[in-house]
Amino acid sequence: MAVCFTLGTCLQLRVEKWNTRAQSDSLLAILLGDGQRMFANHFFTKADVYFHSGYYPSWMDQGMATPDPGHMTEEHHDEHEEAEHEKAMDFLGAPKDWIDRFGRNFFPSTHAHLDKPGESREILPWLRLSADMDPQRIQTYTVGAFWLRRELGKVDEAEQFLREGLKANPDSCEILLELGRLYDENRHNPVHAGNLMQLALRRWDEQEQAQKKPDEGIRLQVLIFLSHVEEEQGNFRQALHYRELELSLSPPQPEIVKQQIEELRAKLGEEKRAEQTPGSKSQTLEK
Fold it and tell me: Which of 32, 159, 245, 286 is 20 to 30 A off residue 59, Cα-Cα?
């Protein structure tokens, strides 16, 4: 009774402040305060642990680089990054003796991912908790939405999750990029997807002007998408503009980008010659 009375007198002064925060924060956020971001990082790491089927370095594995959480999305699965990821995840090394070899039969000792259909649902609760603890952690929203729409087919929930992240991070070009992919791949609305990508490009430029040093990889992905959309719609001049900007960022395969630029220039030349041909549609309209 004495302890309850003491706690009551101490907490009474904070009740009104808690009530105002409760309108926007969850109970865990109120109790943990600023320390919730530490838990958000822990929950995101737990999602990565589940993604690797429990095969994950512990604090005892010294000298092991933490796996890149971006590997939870297949956009990062090119040959070079796959090799680097496999090298980073080989933290156990070869068995030291027969005892070590025998002991590895009793815990996850091989590198694996959640590749089977439906397995990815195991990581979603952890990502939901991470987003609740730290709404400014952008990667939580992009990774969660990726698995919702790609593996589980829950496009509406993925869009809702991304818009929730965009509300908490209105200047995030990463969330706009993922939202644009959703509208292109799942909603089949390239026009709206292109508008979202253009907004993402403006957000990236604004951050660069503010000297916040945004990720150039995000700008590169946005430019690739925009050039593809503009070319599909027949806007070859605008597509060429985006391809030239892409080349200025030193893409991984500049030869392919240069070839695409030449193809777009050829299409522009054909379009110009067609306009100058007597009896063409443009000249008929002018008459």
Answer: 32
Residue at 121: amino acid letter? R
The reply to whether 248 falls in a domain is: no
Is residue 225 a part of any domain in this protein?
A: no
For residue 151, give the 3-state DSSP assignment.
coil
**In terms of Cα–Cα distance, which of 106, 127, 122 is closest to 53?**
122
Alpha carbons 262 and 252: distance in angstroms, whole number: 18
What's phi and psi for 233, nearest 5 deg? -90, 0
Q: How many CA atoms lie within 13 A of 283 on its CB side?
A: 9
Q: Is the pLDDT of residue 142 over 50?
A: yes
Residue 43 counted as domain residue: yes
Could you give phi then psi for residue 127, rounded to 5 degrees?
Answer: -70, -35
Confidence of residue 152 (pLDDT cuts 50, 70, 90): confident
Global pTM reads 0.69
Domain around 159:
29-60+67-90+114-170
Q: Give the model confidence (pLDDT) of 41-59 as tens digits.
A: 777 777 666 555 545 555 4
Would you mind telling me the total number of residues written for the chain in this entry?
Answer: 287
pLDDT at 50: 56
In a domain, 244, yes or no: no
Instruction: Provide the number of structural domains found in the chain.
Output: 1
Residues near 261 by beta carbon (within 8 Å), at least 6 away in sequence? 240, 243, 244, 247
